Each structure stands twice: as structure tokens, then as C-alpha cells.
């Protein structure tokens, strides 16, 4: 029996139970039967959860791109690997075959090597959703360079801090990017960012928008001429199973973003396994994940997961509302997409438009539809089910994180009966537990607690780049011996999980998790601001929006509050990015604080939500009177 594909519920339970009893055998067999290795492992897993020290497939040697590309060439060389769907529907779609992908990646890998990039070097990739983004990522993996993709919506200062944190040697960017009817000046942002990045030696620039940009002599090179001269063959670097594959930054509840480090073999095994099972992938399918490759969802389910399975994956440059609200559905129809994977925020924003946009396209090619990034509310679930899946496509509500690398809890389509708003059951090999406030494991069903994982899984992040202590403190200290996800969850009467949201100071806005602390830091830098506190509040489209409570220094000096609100938001936009803009700002004279000086966010959250009914225990507050003041002045 192969463990690679789950065919029915009985088999799911069989695999699941086996994976808990004998995790080494379980993952070992999947790894052995489904990938090409230069050398097998000595041990499937070696770990010490207390020290946050985990290794999978110890001493094995592998290259992930050999598994993503080379091994498919004999049988599937002419099969389409990537369908590139441009922002402008009138621009031609590009079908990149596995053969073509091989030579593109080989050429790019050769260019990187010629430009001085070696195994272990960090390369920052700041590109729009164009084929070069996929090719650059795979070329890094080919030669063992560590890619650090930065979402091309981040501002210059956010780029600077990420580049400096992992000391990138090179940046790959483009003259610009198309987004709906706008163009974004990516090269300009990189130029500004690099003013403060001493480690970057070279910048390779893709021509996409043909906008005029400045090129710095000796640092900046156009990529296309270099590729033109490169040889379309490349010998892959032999990587250790635990060699780093990539760094991807995610927001933390305090301080600077965390560079989550993922390594090679474990990430490969679990992204491939989950892709196959969660999307029920078959050979002639066309898979489309609408995320940006700048986020983990794009890494794992636009690129690595599909390519590892020899699938056809859609790379979409545009946005759901351009040229009109039918774009997603038009693309599904045009390419006969069989699996569609998107975020609740996109579903909600399209559900509020006329149903005609979706109903006029032929979506009968769809077999499975998925959701990721935040809890999907019941209304959005039903709209998705009725209008997109036409009640015949199971919805896979997939729970996972940047830190987990791939999907952890999700229905297996046609196997696990779905239930609206529930991520349902853990994948085989994954051992979730719910913990109470006294750090005890909560047994049984119909219970609520903090979601932890009690046994390592292959695609888990191994550390935070340059700060293992922070990795330990953030994820392995709240519940000793276990990985703490930061999410709360409930387990229903049959053992299905429903993720209820973050229990820490991270707010998920439009599917992007934003730490409140870095936003507060940015606001506090504004000369008028003394202190601030950010909380999330429910928002129809975005899931959550940000509400800022702000104390000003000299109240008299800034009489023009509208202007100040605008200025503060511009400041946040330029320091973090437009996604972190505050929807509401309330100027206050103080913030509710405990005696130890910690802001009591749960009270601010209630005020932001407009729920004044019960603030709970406020006796530990240093300044309880401030609660009424803030409540009464709520705008
Ligand atoms: C939330 C995205 C409910 C959760 C892959 C998690 C979800 C955070 C779901 C990670 C889901 C993700 N249901 N909540 N199906 N999927 N989340 O790192 O709070 O961008 O901790 O990874 O998103 O977000 P990240």
C-alpha cells in the first residue's frame, strides 16, 4: 500500500493511526517511494522539541529542482508546467513546458553562478508575478543559494530591513510591475531600499513594464541579455537534507519581522504529499492558486508542491477586479482550471459584487476548491460552495502557517465530509493538541484551547534566521515540549478542528498577518505621536481591519485631526506597506494598562468592535477610568 495517496476515509484513519504510531516509518516510506535522492538518510527524524532542534532525513542528499523538473522530462517534457496568465487579458498567455522550464532554470542558474552567487548565499527576489519570479526561485534552489522572496507590495524600508537581516548579496527585481490599470515602480523602491544595504553587490533587473529606470554602473544589470548568452544546461548542486532552501519573513507580535528558515528535504516531502492529497491531483489537471508567491502559500502551492507532482500550475499576474470582477472566473473558464485555491478575503470581496460575474462563466471544469489564510466565515463558505463549486466541489479549508511550511489540518476532498468553517482533520503525520491555560493537554471532544503540535513534521521551519533563541521563545516556550501555533481552536463532537483566530498580537488583514508591534513602532515615529496601540476589528471584506488608539504629544499643536490621520497613514504606508493602513484612528489621552505596563488589548478590541457590554476583569488596571473615556469618545 502506498502512503502517498489517501483514497477513502477508512484509509485516512489507517494512515493517520499508523503515522502516529510509527511516524518514522510513515514519512520514511513516503520519502523513499516518491522522490529522487543522491543518497538516502541515516535517520528519518532527529529532534529535541525543548531546544527547538529538528532534523529530518538526516544526512540524505538531494536537490529539490531535480525533483521538480529533471525527473519529469523523460515522461512529461512537453507537458505544460506553468501557465502564465498576464495582468492584461489581451496579452498572450504563455505555456511553459517542463522542457522549457528546465532550460530557463538552467540558464538562470548559470547566470547566478557567473555573477558570483554560491551555495549558501542569500538572494533577495522582489518581482511581480511573472515567469522570471518562478525561474529565479528555482535557479537559487538549483545552485543552493537561499532565496528570500519579498512580496512586491512592501515599501522600501520594509525591504531594507529584510535584506539586511539576512545579508543578501544580490537582488533580482524588475523595471516595474503591472497591477490592474496601475504600474508599480519596483526598481525605484529597490534603489531607495539599497541606499542602506551594504551587503548587496549586484542587482539583476527584468524588463517587464518598459518604464525608464536608473541603472547604477557596476551594480545593476539587465537580466535578459545575460540569459540570452547563458548555456541551457546546468548540473544541480548536491544539497544536504537540512541545507537551507529559503527564508521567508513573517510578522511577529514584537519587533522586527521573523525570517523563517525552511530547509530542503522535509519541505520537499510534505509540500508534495499535501499537494497530492489536499487537491486530489490527477495528471491532466490544471491547478490554480491565486496567492502571491511572496507569501508561503505561493511558495508551496504555486511552485514547489505542484511541480514536485509534475502538475500544471497557473501563475496569475493580475488582480481579481481587473479588467472587471469576472476575471477569476474568466481565467478558470479559459484554462479549464480543475482546482482553485484562494483566500476568504478574495471570496468575500467577489461575493459582494453581482452574481452575474461568476454565473456567466463555465466553471464545470472545477473539481476541488480551497481556502486559506484566515477563518472562512459561514456566509462566504456558502457563497463559494453555491456559486463557484456549484455544490459539487468539496471545499478544502486548509489551516497552516508560514512556519509550518505546508498544510496541516484540512479535509481530504471526496474523503473527509466537509463542514462549513471547519478545517476538519489533521493530515496523517500531524499531531495537533489543544492546551488549557494551565498548560495541560485537553482531552476529548467539544473543547476549546490553544492549538499546539506535539510531534515534529517534515516541513516545519527550523529556526528564525540569525536568532534561534527567538524561535525557541516564540514557538516552544509557552507549552514546553510542544510547538505553539499562536492560534486558538475548538474541537467539535466528532474531533473536527475549527480555527478561531490568533490569540496573540497578530491581526490577519485580508489574509496577511500583520504584527501590531511593528505598526505601532512606525506610528510612534511620527513627531506628533507619543504612544499608540493597534487592534483588529471585524471587517466585511478584509476579515479584520486595523483600529489605532493614539496618544498625541502636544494635543494643541495638531488641531487638524483629519490631516494628521492622513499623515499617520502615509507614514505607516511608507514604513510597512499600504496593507498596514489603519481603517480607524481614535485619539485618546491614555491607554488601559496593567500595573506592569502592558496594554490591555482585550479591552481595546472590545471597544473597537463596538461591544461595550462586558469588559471583564479590569481590577488589575492601573488606570481603570480611561476605559470609560475611550468608550465615550469612540468615533
Ligand atoms: C491563519 C498562511 C483559519 C491562522 C498559510 C494562521 C487560518 C495564520 C487558516 C498563518 C484557515 C491560515 N482557517 N485560520 N484555514 N489558514 N490561517 O503565516 O491564524 O500567512 O496562524 O500562512 O493564518 O498565516 P500565514
Automatic annotation (TrEMBL):
Entry EC number(s): 6.2.1.1
Domain Acetyl-coenzyme A synthetase N-terminal: 12-68
Top-level taxonomic group: Bacteria
Residues annotated as domain AMP-dependent synthetase/ligase: 70-462
Entry keyword DNA repair: no
Domain AMP-binding enzyme C-terminal stretches: 519-598
Pfam families to which the protein is assigned, alphabetical: ACAS_N (PF16177), AMP-binding (PF00501), AMP-binding_C (PF13193)
A single BP term in Gene Ontology: acetyl-CoA biosynthetic process from acetate
Classification via NCBIfam families: Ac_CoA_lig_AcsA, PRK00174.1
UniProt record similarity statement: Belongs to the ATP-dependent AMP-binding enzyme family.
Name of the molecule in the record: Acetate--CoA ligase
